[in-house]
Amino acid sequence: xxxxxxxxxxxxxxxxxxxxxxxxxxxxxxxxxxxxxxxxxxxxxxxxxxxxxxxxxxxxxxxxxxxxxxxxxxxxxxxxxxxxxxxxxxxxxxxxxxxxxxxxxxxxxxxxxxxxxxxxxxxxxxxxxxxxxxxxxxxxxxxxxxxxxxxxxxxxxxxxxxxxxxxxxxxxxxxxxxxxxxxxxxxxxxxxxxxxxxxxxxxxxxxxxxxxxxxxxxxxxxxxxxxxxxxxxxxxxxxxxxxxxxxxxxxxxxxxxxxxxxxxxxxxxxxxxxxxxxxxxxxxxxxxxxxxxxxxxxxxxxxxxxxxxxxxxxxxxxxxxxxxxxxxxxxxxx
Length: 334
Prior knowledge:
Layout lengths: L7 E11 L6 E12 L4 E5 L6 H9 L6 E6 L2 E2 L5 H8 L2 E4 L3 H4 L6 H12 L4 H14 L16 H13 L5 E5 L7 H18 L2 E6 L2 H7 L2 E6 L2 E7 H6 L4 H8 L6 H6 L39 E5 L2 E4 L3 H6 L9
Parallel strand pairs: 3-8, 3-9, 6-7, 7-8
Antiparallel strand pairs: 1-2, 1-4, 4-5, 9-10, 10-12, 11-12
């Protein structure tokens, strides 16, 4: 679906922080525009430090952007205040990476969920207990856990509680920041399957932030790729994974290990070298050029324009069309 049908739109968002280096700023999010349609899951991927978590936090108001807009149903959240802002923000909830850090260890699980219900006035006192038990059952947890404290639960159980608390206020949008990365592999699939089931049943739109490309491919219908504060590629998961248009996306996909040991033995070593440059002093022109295996002189001069590759699929690279058509030698994707 096109952006004009979007439930949530982010337009040219800029979020920056003062650097420890005097007089310098970190542009964690630098002119990012994305959108979510009703009921869809959209992936946001990139290496650590690319700005994807700051983008998520800026959308829900945990960080204050310097410029740009976040619109819900066409309403600019930056123009709202007081009660109206609180009522509107109820529609956008956040699931944190670390469920233990996001829960108050002095509150029982029931109290943590009740707090969300009280703040947003979702249920009166007679309904709160019923709603708590309903939510715990919805995420596959027994009612007895309502009286337990976070320290008494496993990591998987705590993340289920975090999901239940986010769903308590009946949001329309969930921002999920690496929601299963802190869990053991054996628990990760269970929580992920639960999340996908609930998302489908409730029809909640979701921005799924992750560095695990395989996980995003499983969950998301569309995906955005971020690098050093900017979105450098976006499109349907099918298009981006099958025919990427940016060398960075190609390199990320090439680094994904295969479950088949025969394919893994033949996989070439990743061509992406080095770390992301400092966000206080990003490279001129294309920010990826210092690590790009196809970098040219022009890449240091101008910031690349975003090129449309197919319907809904675009990439910000001077050779995006050639990469997309397979005319440029890129890392092999297995």
